[in-house]
Amino acid sequence: MSAGVAGSTDKAVRAEWARRPERSNAVALRFMAWVSLRLGRRAGRVLLYPIAAYFLLFSAAARRACIGWQERVTGRPATWRALFTQFPAFASVVHDRIYRSTTSSTASTSNCTATTSPRTCRGRAAG
Fold it and tell me: What are the two backbone dihedrals, phi and then psi, of residue 25, each rounded to the nearest 5 degrees?
């Protein structure tokens, strides 16, 4: 496949993803924020696994997108295990970005990104 075709396909996938409505609700988001801010980041992360399992099982569009991505990247069929690994990883990145943007320790975590090793960031962020 040429780079031009692949690039236009990637743009179409991103555009389609952006048009999807939010599947959560205000009560669930407030609860997650409360747990993360009052009980700590680790407590909030524990909740990510059942949330990720829910989306893996009941969001066919997200599941198809992840299957397509994994098959393009690995060159082999996606497994349920690989999907269940990817869903919490994605949720964890989103959770960390939200958590860090709402805590006062954002200045000390500015060098910690989704691609930074957890060992590098350990001790810089609460939780």
Answer: -140, 165
What are the pLDDT digits (tens) for 92-108?
Answer: 988 888 778 877 554 44
- Residue 53: pLDDT band with limits 50, 70, 90: very high
d(CA 32, CA 58): 20
Q: What is the DSSP string of the chain?
A: --HHHHHHHHHHHHHHHHHSPP-S-HHHHHHHHHIIIII-HHHHHHHHHHHHHHHHHH-HHHHHHHHHHHHHHHSS---HHHHHHHHHHHHHHHHHHHHHHHSGGGGTTTT--TTS-HHHHTTTS--
pTM across the whole model = 0.60
Provide the mean pLDDT of the chain. 76
